[in-house]
What we know:
By secondary structure, the chain is of the alpha+beta class. The protein is built from three helices and nine strands, in the order βββααββββαββ. The protein has one domain (3-173). 44% of the residues lie in helices and 23% in strands. The strands form two sheets. Strands 1-6-7-5-4-9-8 form a seven-stranded mixed β-sheet. A hairpin with a 2-residue loop joins β4 and β5 (121-125). α1 (22-60) packs antiparallel against α2 (69-99).
Amino acid sequence: MIRFRxxxxxxxxxxxxxxxxxxxxxxxxxxxxxxxxxxxxxxxDAAEQGIKEAQQASKDDTKSSAGDKYETGREMAQQETNxxxxxxxxxxxxxxxxxxxxTSGSSTVAEPGSVVITDNGNFYLAISAGSLxxxxxxxxxxxxxxxxxxQLKGQKAGGxxxxxxxxxxxxxxx
Length: 174
């Protein structure tokens, strides 16, 4: 998990909830976005490394008197290459999805790139990248196509929804 620290503090108002000014929100969004990019890059690097290793294993496998051993080894290396190619393609799709997100904009409606603060967690509507920490606060990066992303998309502050028996009240959207 990567941790980022914002330079300026958040402002505490209304019943203990934290609201950020526009500059801080922009920094927050940029930090969350960068963490998502880092997540995608790590996945791409791992897939590319796996492809290289499988191709090298295929080249290193020499024909032996054991008969099918050579063909079995080559087939296993090919399957590993195919699996890593699929992972690389998925990571590329995530990168394309991230490229559509504007980190400087603000909206009153939850859309890709929005930070949604609820009474049951903070969410960054972008890609499914797990939990991200900025300035000691955890945000869950979720895809708009995920079950919670579908519930969040189009919501406004003050909205409510339930998912898996858990109720969520939307405090703010940035």
